[in-house]
């Protein structure tokens, strides 16, 4: 069994520049000792119990100095917006096009797929990018035929609401129908050719392998393509038709 350490990123990394003022804070705290305590005496008789020699700290105690520096450091890190396992910065200057393989093969790792979607939407929100969601599994329409859906331009908030209704569909994908939907003029104008395409693939060929390759090449027409896929042991398995090798079934 292996254990890995999570990576740490920051939403506002420029705020970490404030760490350079920590030595100045250290110097100021050492130069300026704590202010003397002011004691109000309700009557003169309390003066008899006081010491005649006045005592004032010459410098700030080390433990108090370190405590204040730690608090200042934590405030700076909080202002920088720490992120655990952040996604790399999105490429391109256009919207984020998310292509989702949401057929039967995606059901096994659906929870992880939703977490990836949330991370992508969060990164788009930090970069002020709009989002377009595209399904590869057809949805039944009012006319009785199944259609592949491509959303309009969505804000990150709208995209988060959009994925709440997502569920894996119990049938195969139709990537060719998705390409036809993406090739519509109004959709191409919304996406442009400088988008980042995030393809959440199920790792299976929808048709012959050349068709999957052609699908990936078509997505490159919108911009750089990133493929997100579960590890092999978490992908759906397909039982092939038995073949007779002469002496046994394979």
Automatic annotation (TrEMBL):
TM annotation in the entry: 6-29, 62-84
Chain ranges of the Aerotolerance regulator N-terminal domain: 9-82
Keyword Transport: no
Keywords for this protein: Membrane, Transmembrane, Transmembrane helix
InterPro entries per record: Aerotolerance_reg_N, Double_TM_dom
Entries under Pfam families matching the protein: BatA
NCBIfam families (UniProt xref): two_anch
Protein name, UniProt field: Aerotolerance regulator N-terminal domain-containing protein
Organism ancestry: unclassified sequences, metagenomes, ecological metagenomes
């Amino acid at each position: 069994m292996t254990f890995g350490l999570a990576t740490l990123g920051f939403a506002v990394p420029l705020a970490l520049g404030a760490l350079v003022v920590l030595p100045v804070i250290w110097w100021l705290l050492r130069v300026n000792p704590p202010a003397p305590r002011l004691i109000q005496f309700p009557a003169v008789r309390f003066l008899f119990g006081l010491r005649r020699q006045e005592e004032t700290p010459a410098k700030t105690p080390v433990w108090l100095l370190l405590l204040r520096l730690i608090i200042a450091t934590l405030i700076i890190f909080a202002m920088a917006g720490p992120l655990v396992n952040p996604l790399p910065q999105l490429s391109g200057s256009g919207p984020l096009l998310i292509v989702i393989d949401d057929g039967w093969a995606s059901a096994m790792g659906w929870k992880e797929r939703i977490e990836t979607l949330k991370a992508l939407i969060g990164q788009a929100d930090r970069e002020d990018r709009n989002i377009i969601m595209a399904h590869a599994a057809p949805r039944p329409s009012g006319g009785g035929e199944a259609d592949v859906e491509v959303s309009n331009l969505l804000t990150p908030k709208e995209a988060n609401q959009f994925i709440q209704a997502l569920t894996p569909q119990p049938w195969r994908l139709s990537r060719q129908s998705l390409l036809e939907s993406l090739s519509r003029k109004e959709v191409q104008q919304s996406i442009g050719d400088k988008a980042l395409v995030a393809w959440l693939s199920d790792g299976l060929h929808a048709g012959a392998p050349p068709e999957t390759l052609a699908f990936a090449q078509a997505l490159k027409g919108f911009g750089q393509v990133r493929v997100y896929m579960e590890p092999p042991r978490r992908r759906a398995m397909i039982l092939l038709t038995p073949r007779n090798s002469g002496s046994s079934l394979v």
